[in-house]
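Follow-up to my post from last week.
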Amino acid sequence: MAEREVTFRVFRYKQGDPAPHYDTFTLRVDDRTTVLEALQTIRRDLDPTLMLRHSCHHASCGTCGMRVNGREVLACVTRVADLGPKITVEPLQNAPLVTDLVVDMGPFYARFVQPGRPFVRASEALPQAEPPGWLIAEGRDPQSGLAGYERFENCIECGLCTSACPVMASDPAYFGPAALAAAWRVVEEPRGRDPQAALRWADDEHGCWRCHLAFECSEVCPSAVDPGRQIMRLRRRLLFGR
Amino acid sequence: MSERNAFPKRRWTAWFAPWRRRPGYWAFVLHRVTGLGLVLYLGLHLYVLRLLLRGPEAWDAFIRLAKSPPFLALDAVLFAGVLYHALNGVRVTLLALDIGVARQRQGFWWVLGLSVALAVAGLVAFILR
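User reply:
Got it. Predicted complex:
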């Protein structure tokens, strides 16, 4: 497997520092090395003070979200081989910085509770989340007409969309694409929640009307949530009631 | 912890991130830049109109300036900006009604292409006249 040298320019900041700075590390990587693996190598072998978050290593938890060469990605599935010989790694934007590549996700998570969608909904584990039995009993193709069921809850709460959103960069009160997309999910599939409450919450100058349709949220989403589309659906529902 | 963090300080220019190269983002940036330009132009236009109060000589002097090639070049830029802002405004209106969202990237290229085509056509028509 071909190996090559790659230079990583990594954002560094510790609480109490007067300003952040960048440290440069040079590693030998191969075709399969991911950015997360490279960062873990840096932490293990070169600088144990480098702080970063990771968990599942397969794009299902959203923990390792960060900016690589200015773009929001999940580091665990971003191959170094797909990037240039010099890679800049920075923390997500629009979230308070804790240290190095770690941001405070508290405010991000807090926005999800308000539209009536807690992080995990009990009904996701119940038969209601499966294709209805009557569809199968009638001999109909369970794959037909199931677009509303297939998506389930794609959002992994990684924060990439919120980091990429240019409106969030200039309006700290904006609810953000992730929470607004979650609000649409409550409207689309209430599962015992009040969809009108979610609509009332989104109907705010800092809610769905604050979006300026840059669609960067949908571009960076690693989980096919398409938050931009969900925000437009909220607007349409609020305007026309359907 | 969040309150103690000094970074990142929110900057009023933070919405401008040129390393993002997706069409939807550039549509947003161009819409904002042309919008700011139009606001600036409107202010200047209203400011210039006060020359009417100073009589024909002052106004005629301004008209001579307005007919100069550099000024006409700025008018061409203004015309292109108006075209883009108007056409992308139609695109944004449709998208905001959840119409054509899946094709928002293509919509941007159509808007840009039409803006350039109409601006060039207008420029040619003006020159030929």
